[in-house]
Design the sequence.
């Protein structure tokens, strides 16, 4: 049985403080409901005294959400606490989160005060909040830079005043993981009554160590992680929910787990990113576009042989259907062959070698090779080694005239010619081919698409031809769409005359 780690999500409070991330009440309710489905234990819904809009959001989220605790932030100020209690009146499980800065710089510069005075204000705020709600969480702002001995005195005093959860924030993202872990351990070793409360971590990412510090704090006894979706938050952000959850899922030996339904992580990440206009960096752990994308040949080969060669998390576990194999100039034959297979093209090893050479030439010019490029490369190389090749094609077509095509085919080195008229140039060309290939063939599907834009574009033709009850797929791409159609038809025919 794993020890439960409580997930306290502050996307709607610390995340929403970020410039450009402000949400209206309707959007906040949408995020809160998604957080509830994700399985978070606590939603920090806002800072009610800060504005009428934030107050109203806390009221409406309290009504809309059933299971998670709804938390409202305050300063160690009586009016803030009264307003927060009022905003939480509909919450099924209300929590007031009050606190004050405890580091020397905060005491000296922010408050022009003393350690003793701050300790008294902390105790008074908790006692005051207890008049309104049972569940009172205390934060020692800038605990990361607070002297451990003094911090332990503050924590002990607020526990005596009735705090149920004690938040130890690394507000400025300053701590090293070992230092932050040692701070939590120090508190467990020196604070009377600490076993009666939950210790929380709230780490910022100024040095890129928010998740490492959170994990270190939890390993040392904290059991609530304060996090945001995608790690959004003040300055360099907060600890990312998805990183903490998947760290403990991936390291089962730590014996700690959350109630998060991780398959919803990708969905909520996109929702928050788009509502808050905060793009997720492509290499972001777990939720970045490249988190499950493999682009270099050696990795692609390894992953295609066995996913676990280069993946520690199954993408399905976080709500992604499958990993992606991105074709670039650093890809190898294994990746190209895999993509061709997915696209329904099987090449012999000689054909694959030739296609790979062409692929590398194109990939050196283009950053990423897409499926159309791959089909085009494969088509050219299949054509070169095909039994039947298009030798020439001439078409006369226009308005109020019959379309006529004359076609030359090279079949295993022998030349054949035929003419036909038809209902349009493609029909004429295909009829001429049929006049040479005396087999029963039925054109089942025929699709012409432009690859890019503009009248000088390459046209792609996908075709399905039925012969003796079996369907054969043909493809070609050419700036001349009649030629592309004739080639796609021949590509399909080559598959049953082989
Ligand atoms: C680390 C964090 O993320 S803390 C949360 C940060 N979030 C926010 O600040 C968003 C919401 N804030 C606000 O809307 C406003 O700042 C308010 C409503 C809280 C206060 O507004 P104002 O009264 O105009 O004060 P202002 O913002 O200029 O200054 C903050 C005051 O709060 C005091 N203060 C700051 N933190 C605390 C605290 N935890 N407990 C008590 N007082 C505090 C400051 O010392 C300062 O007081 P002073 O004016 O006497 O010097
Ligand atoms: C209000 C507190 C918890 C905070 O956000 C911080 O210290 O970073
Ligand atoms: Mg914070």
Sequence:
């Amino acid at each position: 049985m794993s020890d439960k780690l409580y997930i306290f999500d502050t996307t709607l409070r610390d995340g929403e403080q970020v410039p450009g991330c402000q949400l209206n009440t309707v959007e906040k309710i949408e995020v809160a409901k998604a957080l509830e489905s994700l399985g978070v234990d606590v939603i920090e819904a806002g800072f009610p005294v800060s504005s009428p809009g934030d107050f109203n959001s806390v009221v409406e989220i309290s009504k809309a959400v059933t299971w998670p605790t709804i938390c409202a932030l305050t300063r160690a100020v009586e009016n803030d606490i009264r307003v927060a209690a009022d905003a939480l009146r509909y919450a099924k499980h209300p929590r007031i989160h009050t606190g004050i800065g405890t580091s020397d710089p905060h005491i000296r510069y922010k408050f022009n005060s003393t350690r003793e005075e701050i300790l008294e204000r902390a105790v008074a705020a908790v006692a005051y909040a207890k008049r309104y709600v049972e569940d009172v969480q205390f934060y020692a702002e800038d605990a990361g830079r607070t002297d451990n001995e003094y911090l332990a005195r503050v924590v002990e005093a607020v526990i005596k005043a009735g705090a149920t959860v004690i938040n130890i924030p690394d507000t400025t993202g300053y701590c090293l993981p070992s230092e932050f872990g040692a701070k939590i351990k120090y508190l467990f070793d020196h604070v009377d009554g600490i076993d009666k409360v939950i210790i929380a971590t709230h780490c910022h990412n100024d040095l890129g160590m928010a998740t490492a510090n959170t994990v270190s704090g939890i390993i040392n006894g904290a059991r609530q992680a304060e996090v945001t979706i995608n790690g959004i938050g003040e300055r360099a952000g907060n600890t990312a929910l998805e990183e903490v959850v998947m760290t403990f899922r991936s390291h089962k030996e730590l014996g700690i787990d959350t109630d998060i339904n991780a398959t919803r992580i990708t969905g909520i990440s996109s929702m928050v990113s788009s509502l808050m206009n905060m793009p997720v960096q492509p290499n972001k752990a777990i939720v970045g576009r490249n988190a499950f994308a493999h682009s270099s040949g050696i990795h692609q080969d390894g992953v295609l042989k066995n996913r676990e060669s280069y993946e520690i998390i199954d993408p399905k576990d976080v709500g992604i259907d499958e990993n992606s194999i991105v074709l670039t100039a650093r890809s190898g034959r294994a990746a190209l062959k895999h993509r061709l297979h997915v696209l329904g093209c099987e090449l012999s090893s000689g054909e694959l070698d030739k296609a790979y050479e062409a692929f590398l030439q194109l990939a050196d010019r283009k950053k990423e090779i897409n499926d159309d490029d791959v089909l085009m490369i494969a088509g050219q190389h299949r054509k070169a080694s095909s039994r039947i090749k298009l030798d020439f094609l001439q078409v006369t077509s226009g308005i109020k005239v019959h379309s006529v095509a004359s076609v030359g085919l090279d079949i295993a080195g022998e030349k054949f010619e035929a003419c036909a008229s038809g209902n349009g140039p493609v029909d004429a060309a295909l009829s001429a081919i049929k006049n040479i290939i005396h087999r029963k063939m039925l054109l089942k599907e025929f699709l012409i698409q432009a690859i890019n834009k503009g009248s000088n574009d390459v046209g792609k033709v996908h075709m399905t031809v039925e012969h003796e009850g079996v369907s054969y797929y043909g493809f070609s791409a050419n700036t001349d769409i009649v030629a592309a159609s004739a080639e796609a038809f021949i590509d399909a025919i080559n598959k049953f005359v082989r």
